Amino acid sequence: MTVLPRVAPQNVVYYVIFAFLSLIIIATVIGIVQNVISDRKLEQKKRDIAQKKPVLNPAPQVPGVPILGNVIGLARYGVSFLGACRETWGDVFTLNLGNQKMTFLCEPKMIEHFFKAPDSEITFRPAVEQFTQRVFGLPSQTFFPVHSAVLSALRNLLVPGKLADISEKVASLAFAFLRNDSPSSSSHVASPAPQNLFHFIRHWVFCVGVEVLFGSEFLHKGPHGSVAALAAEFWIFEEGFELAASPLPHLLQPRWIRARARLLTWLSHAYKDGQFDGTPVGDLVKDTEGLADEIAPNMILALLWASQANTAGATFWLAARLALPQEAARRRQILDELAARKALIEREDKENSSSSSPSPTKDASTIAAMISLANDQKSLISRCVSETVRLAVQSIDVRIAARELVLSADDPNLSHGTYGVRPDTARIGRPHYYVIPAGRMLAVCPYDAHRDERMYGTDAAQFNPDRADLKVGNGSAVMHSVAGLAYGGGPYRCPGRFFAEREVAILVLTLMLERDVSLTPFSTPSAIPYRRRRLTPQESSSLLRSIKSLGKEFFFDLGKGLWGISGIRWGLGATLHFPLGAWPAAGHAFAGHYPPEVAAREELEVAEVAGVENGAKEREKIEKIEEEEEEEERKKRQGQEQATRKIYRLPRPELRKLVGVKVPGEACMATLAPRTKKDK
Fold first, then answer.
1. Is residue 93 within 8 Å of 73, Cβ to Cβ?
2. pTM (2 decimals)?
3. Is 494 annotated as a binding residue?
4. Which Pfam families does the UniProt record give (predicted)?
5. pLDDT tens digit string along 487-516?
6. Between β-strands 397-401 and 441-444, what pairing exists: parallel, antiparallel or unpaired?
7. Which of 190, 401, 457, 550 has the largest CB neighbor count within 10 A?
8. Of 569, 584, 602, 575, which Cα lies nearest the Cα of 653?
9. Cα 505 to the chain's mean position, in Å?
10. Domain 131-350+360-391+490-516, second-level architecture
11. Nearest residue to 187 (alpha-carbon basis) of 232, 217, 222
């Protein structure tokens, strides 16, 4: 057995003192080294400022919660969340969306570079591969080799010079539906009772668009059995489209999975039976060299979605706007323009016709005038369509950084694009560069960009069909047009943009001629201040209130300890509280992202956070103030009930939707009485 030598007590004291002094000396040395390094960095920073050398930083990362990042906040508030991120973090910011990061670019010059950069810098294919494969089931290894051929065939099919026959068919079928001369209109006959205007227009646009592009045989005699069954499955598919494109597993959407399976089965049977032969879609599939038969139904499904997702929404928003009483002058101006164009065409036909010429068919001159106005970019109806698309479109444009990018707002000689300037760098006059790593997903949000005063002026959020075209750069990246970024840019811009705007113009003109759309007024203004749901008297017992307070405080403290205040705020959207879709009561325009009451709400939330941290008394004080404010608001509303009973406005849009044209977030009821000859 080994016996350890005993250490004298006085030696233990010496060892402790020695260890303590050693730690002090080490800490002092480390501190001196750090100070020297810090001083050198400070001196270098001063020299960089004097020489105006650039600052290299990654794009700001928006805080979030573990694993999910900002998924919940983005899902809850959609474009309002993106707008809040831009206001807080600047023109370049990064969201953590589960298993991938996405950097949003908002500065106008950056947007130009985003669309015009070569594939060696910012590439399109990897960003859209997972989208087409997850949503439409188009495998990248078989579809993308023919992707360029598909785009080329679409552009050749839908160029303005070849749209005359298709446009005439759109007008004829639109008239037939509204006059109840079409099998598709049996379930939507004119009724004196108010009906949901969006549902009516959506079904109408679906029937007309499918019959024009996919053929009458498929629509009325296809394997789906009825038009209603086909439309129902398609709208289930479209409503789950956005979530299906995300990284979340499809098992969370059983209805969407079933709807896609049914649609693909029906399209496959119709394709094999030749029901698409001789139709624009059938010709497109046939003319696409190298397209395998096994993926043809999947591509037809993609074309079906593209033909409907934006057209239905844009048609609704313009039709609803022109039905507002305050838009009567503009509505009359459009009809007068149509009548003048029709008279001009009839006069020209009369001068050029001979005795042997066949008699014109019913509505021939009216349809010709509608097509002429739809093709004329300077006509009022065309400008209204473009402005509506500008304000209502939301499709996020995505790309991937093919290599590391260095981007600046200050250096005009930098070939890699220009982005926003941080306030501190603007103050000291130094170029600030953002470093984007290779493989990072990049995104542009047109809905936000179209409300940017740097792009559209001080009235960017207002409906103004007389505004000048948006000009981004020399026009090579984004076409000069009022619609702006609605159809994307660069070589991958939407090939059906010309047909889409003409179709919307023709449909709206047809509706104005055939139906007297009378909107049901809303009983409340659209800009309603956000208020939490208050407890009922039964729920307000002291016990339940105590449990609620304890639970709220517990989970808040737990989240704050795990993720911090910023993680709760930006990861869950827990203290943002955006009043989704607060629009002007007058209905003349879509408002910006936030109504005036949001600033007050933000101050209240900051106070509430302080109350949770400082104790229950502060929170109860804030709740008491809130209750008093609500009581005052209730009395005010009661006093103004008569004044606010009939408010004609546009419905609030559903801001959480991130793909396609906005849909209404509340029912828009209207009567659609047939117009008499005297009215026309």
1. no
2. 0.76
3. yes
4. p450 (PF00067)
5. 877 777 777 888 889 999 999 999 999 999
6. antiparallel
7. 401
8. 584
9. 22
10. Orthogonal Bundle (1.10)
11. 232
